[in-house]
Every structure is written in structure tokens, then in C-alpha cells.
Write a structure and sequence with these properties.
The structure is a single chain. This protein is globular. The chain has one domain: 3-Layer(aba) Sandwich (Rossmann fold), CATH 3.40.50. It is built from 12 helices and 10 strands. Helix content is 40%, strand content 19%. By secondary structure, it is an alpha/beta fold.
Amino acid sequence: MATTGRFTNDDARERYEAAYDALAARWPVPSTDLTVPTSFGPTRVRRSGAGDGIPLVLLHGLNGSGLSWHGVVGRLAAERVVYAPDVVGTAGRSVQTAPLTSADDYGTWGAELLDGLGLDRAHVLGYSEGAWFATLLAARAPGRVATLTLGEGITALVKPSRKVVARMVRAAAVPTAKSFARLDEWLTPGVTLTDEDRALARAATAYRRRTPWPSPVPDERLRAITAPTLAIFGAETRLGDPVAAAHRVTALVADSRVELVPGGGHGVLWQLPDQVLPLVEEFCRTHDTP
């Protein structure tokens, strides 16, 4: 049995690569692609931006890649360098070469990524599953994370709703443009995805992951987080219970605050960018000094 992720066949990989290139062409700011060695495999990272602020690392959600941030990276990279990796063990241009057998392995991968980028400290922003990765990193290497921002990090804190899981399984079982569009419209209302975004997400379903799946981070791990933490939830999210998730953050993470965005769904960062991105920008700016 395979212990590392891979595409189902060469044709599936080629379709993914073509979709990846098409979405990469939408990146709105100058960038450089880097390959960072880690003990779990080489990690592809897109570097953008400049400025004196502490760098920001962006961790993408399910079936995404570093390119998923193309719609918001222009603003986020205005004052600082921004790094957008393809998380190892997921579809993307990172290559998993060793097993990821526990959630803690993702914390180790994140710390090694910072090492490979030459970052003593970084702001870290994760969206959806990426918020789980970010939480694991902040618990594993608390002194390395300048701030932790969790965008719709429901699954890092509480279980997702059964209805969401069922609908996601159905869409993945028959990954047509129509089935994905129905899921997106229901789960992330108000978010306009490009054809290239949709094509890459569909192509990613042919990647067979061999990694732990997100589950609520244990209390002791959350208590280990020392970074100032901002948790942003859409008040109307369908992924899970944002009030219960908010309670776990404020009860267990010492320096934390929650923003529950009225009218926001699971895609709140992209749905309401003029409300959400200033929160992220100001939070990072406030903590740019040691």
C-alpha cells in the first residue's frame, strides 16, 4: 500500500499540470517560484511582494494550492514578502517523499519550511484546512510564529457538519463541473471562482492523499500556542458551528480574539475581502515589531 500521495495515473497528473499552469497565469503580482527541501519532500513555494514587514506564509485549503491565493495576494503582499506553498502531501507541485503519519508531522513540516525559507519568524495565515496546518505549526514551533490568523478554521477546532461531509463526498465521487459548481454555490456563497480555479480543483480530485485528515486540535496543543491569534469566521458558514469554534479559541489560546463576520460564508476571505483583509493587514502590522 502506498504511503505517499500520488496521482491515479500519468494522464491525471498531466491534466493537473495543465490546469495549474493556467491558474498560475492569473497571479497578479511579480513572483518567484522556489523549491524548499523538507524531510517529507521538496515543497514548491511562490514568493511575492516586498517591504519591511515580517513575512507572511499562506496555507491553502482542501483541493487548493499556493495559487489559491491569487485573488487576495496583491493586497497581502503590499507591505511584506508573502510565501504561498503547495502543502506537501496534497495535489500541487510539492512532492511527498516520506509518510505523514500524524497531525504533528504537519507541524514539523511547517517548521522545516520556515527553516528552508530562512525565516526566524513569520506571520501565518491559513484558510479552512490550511488553518489546521497553521494551528499545528503554531503549536509545534510557538516562537517562530509572529501571529496566527485562522480563516474559517472550523475543522481545526470542531467537527464539520455531517451535511457538509456528505455533500463533499458526493461531489468528489463524480467530479464534474456541474457537481463542483453546486457544491461551491452552497458552501461558499458569494465567491466568484474563475474557470481556472474550478478546473484545478477538479483535477486535484485525482490525487490520492496518504495523509492525516483535519480533526479538532487537542486542548493541550491549543494551549501551547503563544502567538497572538486572530480567528475569523463567517457568521453564516455551513462548514460547522462557528460559535463553538470561537469558544475553543478564546478559552484555550491565551492571546486570541475572534471576528464573526455578518453575512459571511465559508469563503469569507474572498466573499467579503473589503471587510476581512483589513483585519488581517492590521493584525500583522500591529505585531510587526518583536
